[in-house]
Design brief:
CATH architecture of the largest domain: 3-Layer(aba) Sandwich
Shape: globular
Strand content: 15-25%
Strand order of the largest sheet: 4-3-5-6-7-8-9-14-13
Bound molecules: adenosine-5'-diphosphate, zinc ion
Structural class: alpha/beta
Largest sheet: 9 strands, mixed
Distance between the termini: 53 Å
Number of domains: 2
Length: about 425
């Protein structure tokens, strides 16, 4: 099923011509903003010298820092009265940044989200419960408008109030949910506590996004709920959700290249990498009126999957985000991503639905403590079994992350549940 088959299956030459046409318009619009005016001057860029899609590589990158510098209106490319909305990033890594939209930007965004939902097989006859935060965060309103554009009934449940969420799902036979992976694992715990089997619900699929999670976690969620879970990627600087989405094949996320120009770079050198190599995702708006952003460093690590997708869409796919360049932990000199730890943990059937990574410094040495909730039957069982599980977890983790963590096994519900983006790492070393 397609939302706009012509554009979703456009041939590569057609797509590149379209991108170049759109890019020229975006460059001209950006050049009028106070931020890029100065930026181009400082970097001696004359946009009339950019003569092809490839010449975009001559532009310097725009960073989150630049967005903060240009706060509040420095990157706005339209008169103030054409702006109809603002959103802000969640501020995971510092002061949040603000993004503006014209009516056309909102319409285009809704269209992309509708396209993404249709790619997963969702239709007007579905009932969609949106369990992402409404408000400044883009996860709520972004999916909301897209689902309405598609014509699906939307329940704007937002986050939290888990019992109410369950009741809505039961009463209105909800078939699709949008939720963070961490909250979905909490929700299943609450369902189990209340003796509700997932089969009693009408749920068919979940859109999981807003935070990194492993393939093992996706599979765990699919098995627990007995549904299909689709990966959804977006960031407020690029509208919000709907930048890249999995199709029914569930093998990587199609990034909508008629709206975003995609590059993968080496995060240390800035060099553009060929398809297939892992690096930092850099995105350029091709369709933005209010606030066009050029070569934006997302800090998200992924790679382009060069092979064509069986669904027939020609827009390339990106692989599951491995993490952010800035959530990489350096422990005793070794680089570790939380997602590496998560994929080991979630492969253990005894491991429950929440965990936390604690970093401490003792006598000048870095220590990693991983607190892991396990299923209560296991927790109240044989002590030797617990010791064995602890040793096995330590051993498998060490094989992946090289360092030797301390494992603390906990009863379900011991760690604070997360409703929005989960905070997985607590680094006490800086204090
Ligand atoms: P903040 O940067 O403050 O978290 P946003 O709310 O805009 O701001 O969140 C966007 C970020 O969320 C992305 O850059 C990415 O790091 C993360 N993210 C969103 N969707 C996914 C996903 N499906 N997988 C991994 N990370 C994701
Ligand atoms: Zn596909």
């Amino acid at each position: 099923m397609f939302w706009n088959k012509n554009i979703e299956t456009i041939d590569r030459t057609g797509l590149e011509n379209l991108q170049w046409e759109k890019l020229q318009k975006v460059l001209r619009a950006a050049a009028e903003t106070p931020f890029y005016k100065k930026f181009f001057l400082d970097h001696k860029i004359n946009i009339s010298e950019l003569v092809s899609l490839q010449s975009i590589a001559r532009l310097p990158f725009t960073t989150k820092h630049d967005l903060r510098l240009s706060y509040p209106y420095g990157m706005v490319a339209v008169p103030r009265d054409k702006i109809v909305r603002l959103h802000a990033s969640s501020g995971t890594t510092g002061k949040s940044t603000v993004i503006f939209y014209t009516q056309k930007d909102i319409d285009d965004w809704a269209d992309l989200v509708a396209r993404s939902m249709v790619a997963t097989g969702t239709s007007r006859s579905d009932v969609f419960q949106n369990m992402m935060g409404y408000g400044l965060f883009t996860g709520g309103l972004g999916l909301h408008y897209g689902a309405e554009r598609l014509g699906t009934m939307v329940i704007p449940a937002s986050t939290g109030n888990t019992l109410k969420q369950i009741q809505l799902m039961q009463d209105f036979e909800v078939s699709v949910i949008h939720i963070t992976p961490s909250y979905s694992l909490h929700l299943i715990d609450v369902l189990q506590e209340h003796g509700i089997a997932p089969e009693e619900l009408s749920l068919k699929k979940a859109y999981l996004g807003a935070e990194p999670y492993s393939e093992a976690t996706r599979q765990k969620i699919e098995e627990l709920y007995k549904i299909d879970a689709y990966n959804s990627y977006g960031l407020s600087e690029m509208n919000g959700p709907g930048v890249a989405f999995e199709c029914e094949e569930k093998k990587g996320m199609h990034i909508w290249e008629d709206y975003y120009f995609v590059e993968i770079i080496n995060p240390d050198t800035g060099e553009v990498l060929p398809d297939g190599e892992e690096g930092e995702l850099v995105l350029t708006h091709l369709n933005r009126e209010a606030q066009p952003i050029l070569r934006y460093r997302t800090r998200d690590l992924t790679r382009i999957i060069p092979e064509p997708c069986a669904c027939g869409r020609t827009h390339r796919r990106i692989e599951r985000i491995k993490g952010r360049t800035d959530d990489m932990m350096i422990i005793g000199g070794v680089n570790v991503f939380p997602s590496q730890i998560e994929s080991v943990l979630m492969n253990f059937p005894e491991v429950g639905n929440n965990y936390q990574i604690l970093l401490e410094r003792q006598e000048n040495l870095d220590r990693m403590i991983i607190k892991v909730e396990i299923y209560s039957k296991m927790f109240h069982g044989d002590l030797r079994e617990l010791k064995r599980l602890e040793a096995k977890l330590r051993e498998e983790l060490k094989a992946i992350i090289i360092i030797n963590p301390r494992i603390e096994l906990l009863e379900p519900g011991s760690l604070p549940p997360s409703m929005g983006k989960a905070i997985r790492v607590i680094d006490n070393r800086k204090i």
